[in-house]
Amino acid sequence: MDIVVGIDIGGTKTKIGLVNKDGNCMEKTYFRTREYPDLDDFLDKIKDTVDDLTSKFPEDFNILGCGIGAPNASSKTGTIKNASNLLWKGSIPLLEKLQERMPIPMKIMNDASVAALGEMLFGSAKGMKDFIVVTLGTGFGAGIVANGQLIEGYGGLAGELGHIDMTIGDGRVTGLNVKGGLEAYVSATGLKRTIMYMQSQYLDESRFRSIAYNDLHGEEITAAAAEGDPIALKAFDFTAKIMGLALANFTAFTQPEAFILLGGLVNSGKYILDPLKKYFNEYLLDIYKDEVKLLRSGLPGKTAAICGAAALIWQDYREQ
Predict the structure, then answer these.
(1) R_g of the chain computed on alpha carbons
(2) Partner of 255 at 20 to 30 A CA spacing, among 41, 48, 67, 230?
(3) Fold type of domain 2-120+309-318
């Protein structure tokens, strides 16, 4: 059996899996990225984890290559450059260093861009030529496909829409120090910050008044919203309003057929998606109304990022 190693390097977790030609993740695991502040230790951990996964694989297999998705990763240079949610700063030659440990065909790309490839090969964007994937995890990422082509940009870093200055809200900064930047509001981290902001603006009783920021998790915010917690509901509405405006603005760039949403924040379901649809429709130009769909990822939630990374390699075999 032919398989591809898919690696998703996130600000919180690094996820690794073995993906077949149909986009099914046959084996998977993860470790916490921040537990490896030294880059060499981190890369050694990836190598050891891949070895452990392949040792458990029940069939004879052939590894075609390894695809890697990471924030601020350039497909042109093989580097990660000043990623706001990672501990390593400067220009990190990750592809070169990892290939020394794993001498197999290997590609790297911005995490949201590989998510777009994954949706095009295996998920909700099958058959589409114009769409934008939005990843809503620790940060906000975007993978843009126009006329059937992934938009990579001159240096391979296109799609950093999370750091666009929206000049909104309380002027909080993103990890790249953009004041009022989108990612600071529309992300799992941004939602936590909004919970704290709403408590400063309103006097409603809420379970969050006794929870410190570092002890707050997205699942709790969703659970609180389901119980009718007013601060949680206000936070979701505030987040959805900003995101609706952003997506309406992005529509004017390429007029996508759909926005495909994935990541932890999307797991909040109707509490984020229902107000998002309302605000998105309000802010859209009339010429685009009822023309742009909002879809959830068509990839299994826990393996979507892994399958997207693997698509970097599998796309070459699909084109043959």
Answers:
(1) 19
(2) 67
(3) Nucleotidyltransferase; domain 5 (3.30.420)
